[in-house]
Every structure is written in C-alpha cells, then in structure tokens.
Amino acid sequence: MSPFHHLLANNLAANVTNFTVWFALTFWAYLETRSVFATGMIAGIYLVLTAGLAFWFGSLVDHHRKKRVMLGSSVVSAGFYGAALTILAVTPEATLRSVSGPVLWIFIAVTMLGVIAGNVRTIALPTLVTVMVAEDRRDRANGLVGMVTGIGFLTTSVISGFLVAWGGMVAALGLALPVTALAFAHLLMVTVDEPPPPTGADGSATPRRVDLAGTLKIIGAVPGLFALILFATFNNFLGGVFMALMDAYGLSMMRVQHWGLLWGGVSIAFILSGLLISRMGLGTNPLRTLMIVNLVAWSTAALFTIQPSIALLAAGCVLWMFLGPFAEAAEQTTLQKVVPFERQGRVFGFAQSVEQAASPLTAFLIGPLTQFVVIPFMTDGAGADAIGDWFGRGPARGMALVFTVAGVIGLIATVIAFNSPQYRRLSAAYAKSGA
User: Fold this and answer.
1) Is 205 helix (H, G, I), strand (E, B) or coil?
2) How far apart are the C-alpha atoms of 63 and 13, rounded to whole Å?
3) pLDDT tens, residue by residue, 133-145
4) In sequence order, which residues have a C-beta less than 8 Å from that of residue 24 and are 6 or more positions away?
5) Which of 31-35, 152-156, 378-382 has the highest mean predicted lDDT (pLDDT)?
6) CB 421 within 8 A of CB 219
7) ∠ CA(316), CA(322), CA(325), 5° rounding?
8) d(C-alpha 219, C-alpha 230), whole Å
9) Dihedral over Cα of 52, 58, 64, 69: its sign
C-alpha cells in the first residue's frame, strides 16, 4: 500500500468511528424521546459547530503538518468520547430522556464535539491529494476519497443501528474509544511526504492566524469561485432538511435495526460511485458534471417521498448516495487546481464554513416547523383535506411533504445556476489554470 492508501484507510477508520457515534446519538435520542425536535437539534448542533470551526480548522491545516493535525483530531475526539461516557455512567436514565432537562443537551453537546473534532481530517486530506497525486489524476483520487466516505456510511449505519438496539450509547462510545486509539497508532507509523508549513522571507514561521481577508482575496481572484461556494451553500441550506428529518422519517416506517440495514445497503451506491470516479474521472469540465448531478439529485428528492413506500425511500436514497461523491469530487478537484497549495486549507475551511452556515438555520427551524406546523397540516389540517387522499395523512406524510418541497426548490436553483455567467466564467478559469 502506498502512503496515500494508508491515509485513506486511516481516515476510513476515523470516519466510521465518528459517524457511528453521530448516527447512534441521533437514533438513540429519537428512540428515547420520540421527538423530531431532538433529532433536528442534533443535526443543527453538528452543522453549527462545523460552520463555526471549519475555517479555524483550515488555518490549522495550513500552518501545521497535515499528519500532525490529523493525529491531534484523534486525541481530541477520544477525550470528548471519554467525557460523554462518564456522563452516561453517573446520570440516571430517566434524566437523559427529558428533552426539557439540561443534562441531555450537555451529553449531546459533549458527544458532538468529539464527532466535530474529526472534521479537520476532511480538510487535511484534500490538501494532501494536491501534493501526493498528479494533477491529471486528482479527480480520480477524489473519487477514492468519496469511496472511503461511502464505505464509512455503509458500515456506520449498520453498526449504529445494532449498537443502539443492543447497548444504547454506552455500546457506541465504548466501541469508539479503542478504535480511535488504533487509528492514532496506525497514523503514527505512516510516512507522509509533505512540504513544511510556509515560512516568511527570512525563514521564520508565518503568523498562525486565520487571515480571512487574504483567503477572500484568493477566492475573489478566481472568476466564479464565490458563485460555486454560494451554490453549494444553497444546496446545503436545503440539505439541512434531510439531516433534520431523514432518520425520523425512516424510523417512522421501520425498526431501528432495519433502518440501519437499509442505510448499509444503499450506501453501497456511494462506494460504487467512488469507484466509478476513480476509474473514469469527472471529464474535462468537473463543474458541468456538478450541475448535471444536481439536476438528477433534486429531481430524486422531489419524488422519493411522493408515496409512503419503503421501496421508493430506498430507491431515492440509492440515487442520492450514488450522486453525492460526484458533487463532492467536482468541487474538490476545482479548488485543488485553481487555489495555491499554501492556501488550500483555509479555502477548503472557508468553503466548509460558508456552505454549512446555511444548514444550521434549516436544521434548527425544520424540526419545530415540521413538528408543530407541517405535521398537523398533513394530519387533520388543510393539507390532509386537500391532498391527503393520494399523498397520505399523518406525521410521516408531513415530513414527506417537506422533502418534496425542498426537492422542487433545489431543482429550480440548479437550472438557474447552470445557465448563469458565473458558471461559464469558472469553467473557463478551470480550463486555463495550471496544475
């Protein structure tokens, strides 16, 4: 195995661990409280922390050795997981079931901080692709990164469902700690040939600051790059709907073990997608690929909940998962080519911060909005009277209506972006840029 493949394997172990804890926390919270509000808040907490810390994470990546930063993320994750396990050990079960009590939310916050600490890896790895992979093969390497993410989803959903059914969050955190330690030990032995952090003209270290103004200047110098980030931001604004409601919608139709197995099955599509990209690449214009993928993805989002069907749900999830790596690899490949390496950590971090900033608003709003407005609207309100005979009635159909509306809005936005001058300018800049 090459060092790059070792890094992929190491990130896989870390991703599986962190996503397992996150999925398990969402499953566990819903089963313990039966509250869509709680699952929406968990998604919102994740997205707020991601948006708030990503740019700082990017600065860490630019100013330190990437391997050292990845090792640090494992140490921090393990510390928070240990603290969360301690809270479980000293808190009565009844107290943790109370949505109105502070202990549940303290436990959720501490657990999610452990998950978020792993996000620095998602910024460090694409920058290492730039230095470890030739420019004409980076899109394929990014496909492998997507495949690793897919394998993580495949194993995570299955593991999370069975862990929660068997031992709740104690089992999930009890598994996370030793696996995180193993990932740390493995990464210590991987040799990563990366350039040292940038230095000043006199050889001294450059100031270790976030430097938002400099990053904005780099992004503004590339025609259409701001537009790409804003487009991804809008997509994530709508994507917050899926993070807030998908688990609740699935669990309303099946048991937690079956929901975990379903996600495990459909996540194979993520792996196949990554393999396809690694073999064939993204074509000469990754941005065009990004737009086509979004057209299909949002069309799917508008239709997969049109009827209360597990088969439709599974088909929609398969398509959604298959298309995800194409969109992610297209954006990463574009940034890797048009942004200088010494700024890539901060640009990736800035993109992650801005793109995720819209999703917390959706996630925080959509849980209460669905629970207190849309579900009654589709249970015994005007919506149930108007379309209930063919669309269906009840809480699950209220959630389904939110998915459909989000899909239609996303489809309209993609058509507008595909025909915009910003899209044409960035495509031209990508074609002219050097390695």
Assistant:
1) strand
2) 25
3) 887 788 888 878 7
4) 160, 163, 164, 169, 172
5) 378-382
6) no
7) 135
8) 12
9) positive
Under 8 Å CB-to-CB from 85, ≥6 apart: which residues?
A: 170, 173, 174, 177
3-state helix, strand, coil in the chain (%, to 5): 85, 0, 15
What is the spatial distance between Cα 327 and Cα 339, in angstroms, rounded to a whole number?
A: 18
**What tokens does 274 get?**
């990554």
In whole angstroms, what is the distance from residue 265 CA to residue 271 CA?
Answer: 11
Q: In the block, which residue shows the tokens 């990736």?
A: 348
Specify the length of the chain in residues.
435
Q: Which of 308, 278, 271, 301 is nearest to 394 (CA)?
A: 308
Which residues are CB-neighbours of 90 under 8 A, at least 6 positions away?
none
Structural tokens at position 211: 């430097």
Which residues neighbour 339 within 8 Å (Cβ) at sequence distance 6 or greater?
218, 219, 222, 347
pTM: 0.67
Residue 309 is encoded by which pair of tokens?
Answer: 């069907």
Question: What tens digit of pLDDT does each residue of 223-273 get?
Answer: 788 888 878 777 777 777 777 788 888 888 888 778 878 877 787 787 788
